[in-house]
Structures are given as C-alpha cells and as structure tokens.
Design brief:
This protein is α/β, with parallel strands linked by helices. It is built from seven helices and 13 strands.
Length: 345
C-alpha cells in the first residue's frame, strides 16, 4: 500500500516576516511535513514560535545544522545564504532561497513555476526565488508576452513597507499614531518619514543612478522569461501601505495588441485574476490582494506613447507570490514532477 511521502523541512530566517509566512503557508497548504525545524540568528535561538497548533523551538542557523533535512527554505538575507546554503547542499538538502545572493548565477535556476518550471530540472542543489517586484510584475507580463511578444516595458512600483521587514511595518504604524497625537515622528528604517509620504528609493543606488531593486527587475525579468535583450526601465517607490506591492506598467509588444485579447490572456493565466471594469470602478488594490495566491491585473488600455503597447496595473502580495508562496509552489511542483524526494530513512 503506497503512502504519500513526507519531508523533513527547515526554514532559515524563521523569525522574520518572510520566514513566518513560509511556516504559515506550509501548514495552510498542507505541505507533506515529516518534521519542521526553525533556524534563526544566535540572538533568537532558544525562543519558540507557535503556528497552526504547533510550537517550534528556534535553533541557531550555523554550519552543520542541516543534517537530515530534505529541503531548506532560506528566508534571510544574502549574506546568510552565501554563508550557509552551500553547507545545506553538502548535507544533501535542496535549498530554495528568497535572497538576491545567487539569482543571477548561471548554475542557479531562478524560477516562477507558472513561467519557467522547466528550469527546476537544471538545479544543482539551489533554486532561487525572484525579487518580490519582479514576481508580481511578471504575473501580468508573461501571459501578455505569450500572446503578443514583449519588446520592452517601463514600470513604476508602489511597494509596501512589509518588503523592508517587520520593523518597517512597526515604524509606519508608530508614525501614524504619532501624527494623530501630534507627537514627534521618529525615523529609523527609512531616510524619510514614510507615513503620509512616498519615498522614491528601494535599495541602494548604483553608479548609473538606478537602485538595486530597479536593476533586479531588469536582470531577473530577462532570466526568468528567457529574453536576454529585453529592455526594462524601472522606478521603485516605497509607499505607506502595509502589505502587497502594486505597479503601473507600460509595455510594448511585437504583435498587434488589443484590450480584449489582453484581458482574455490575463483571465486564462493561472497566476493572475482579471479585475478590469472601469465603468464599475473595479481594479486591483493592495488591500484586495493581500494574502491572496494570485495577483490582480486591471486598468488594461492601449498605451498612448508606444506604437503598439498596453498600459496596465498590477497588485500582488509581496510576502506570498513575491516570497514565501512562490518558494513553496516551486517545492510542490518539484514533488509532483519527482524532482524532490524524501531521503531513505
């Protein structure tokens, strides 16, 4: 009698915002867990985390900690990935990493399962997750590319503070409360007040004037979509929204476009929901697409600057499709395809 295989799973960065979402979604999606181990920094070691009726002890993420695990979700920063991911692979684990540390490495597949699942077959122990903004944007652009052939796109992002971690969410809340009380507003996470403001900087600036987030959108879109010459220009902006990123996209295509055909392409795509009724004032918002599996796409219209283009709006959960959910979807797909199997025990 056959039984469903179960897996020993680890989460590095389990006490952070993305790590918490990985843990939550593993339970909610009924991932076949044999055991779950939580890892974090030395200062968090010894604490406990409760989820779905279970209480888990947190241990220090360090070399030699991953023995016996089948898959480890890395939900920490790039320095942690560089320091510990090779050790996890050496221990026989599959690593699925949310950081930017290894995304552009030629031997590391960068995967959105609705777009390039075939890349999972090329992994050498590590699979990379895309940047949150890239993931949300491509949920709209990929089906349009399949229908019309994408040439280039311009994007302005409206990124929630949860993309900077739990401390940024607390800072926004504290600034709103201070404003309401007429108290002084403190800034720690961002260089400017984020409450009632927008900040046109996400990540640090490069020598070309683009931030790291903006450069990632170009480089990662090219790799995931298999379009090495794709032209992308991004302006990434932090806004006083707690959760879910939104984007205004202007895209130019090879083949003639129409609004009806674009809507049909989005509606048929498994990673998106079409919310596009201008007369009824229906379009995606970050509140509507927080904690949602799919991303919302709307405001689709003929672009008035491109010869053959579309303008559109996208909203999607940066902690789900932009991080934890996409990572778990990759693992789920690998299980279905026989690419991820539990060890002989």
């Amino acid at each position: 009698m056959s039984t469903t295989p179960s897996f020993s799973v680890g989460i590095v960065g389990a006490t952070g915002a993305a790590g918490h979402e990985v843990m939550r979604l593993l339970h909610e999606r009924q991932f076949p867990l044999r055991e779950l181990r939580l890892f974090a920094s030395a200062r968090s070691a010894g604490s406990t985390v409760a989820c779905a009726g279970h209480t888990y002890a947190v241990v220090e993420a360090k070399l030699g900690a991953f023995a016996g695990l089948d898959v480890v979700f890395f939900a920490a920063g790039g320095s942690v990935t560089r320091a510990l991911a090779p050790d996890a692979v050496k221990a026989g684990c599959l690593v699925i990493d949310k950081s930017s540390a290894l995304r552009m490495e030629p031997t590391v597949p960068l995967v959105i399962p609705e777009i390039n699942p075939q890349a999972l077959r090329t992994h050498q122990g590590i699979v990379a997750n895309p940047n949150c903004s890239t993931a949300v944007a491509l949920m709209a652009l990929w089906p349009l590319h399949q229908r019309f052939g994408l040439k280039r796109y311009f994007v302005a992002t409206y990124q929630s503070v949860s993309g900077s971690g739990a401390a940024a969410v607390r800072e926004l809340e504290a600034q709103v409360q201070a404003h309401a009380k007429g108290a002084p507003i403190e800034k720690k996470i961002y260089p400017y007040q984020i409450a009632f403001n927008v900040i046109p900087q996400v990540d640090s600036f490069g020598s070309d004037g683009y931030t790291g987030e903006e450069s990632k959108m170009m480089q990662e879109s090219r790799k995931i979509m298999g379009l090495p010459q794709l032209k992308v220009s991004a302006t990434c902006v932090r806004v006083p929204v707690v959760r879910a990123h939104s984007m205004a996209i202007n895209a130019e295509f090879e083949r003639p476009v129409s609004v009806d055909a674009a809507r049909a392409a989005i509606a048929a795509f498994p990673g998106a929901v079409l919310v596009d009724d201008p007369a009824g004032r229906k379009y995606p918002t970050p509140l509507d697409f927080s904690e949602k599996v799919k991303c919302g796409v709307g405001r689709i219209r003929i672009d008035t600057a491109f010869e053959n283009g579309l303008s559109l709006w996208v909203s999607g959960d940066n902690l789900w499709k932009g991080a934890a959910l996409n990572a778990i979807q990759n693992a789920e797909l690998m299980i279905r395809e026989g690419l991820l199997k539990p060890r002989n025990r």
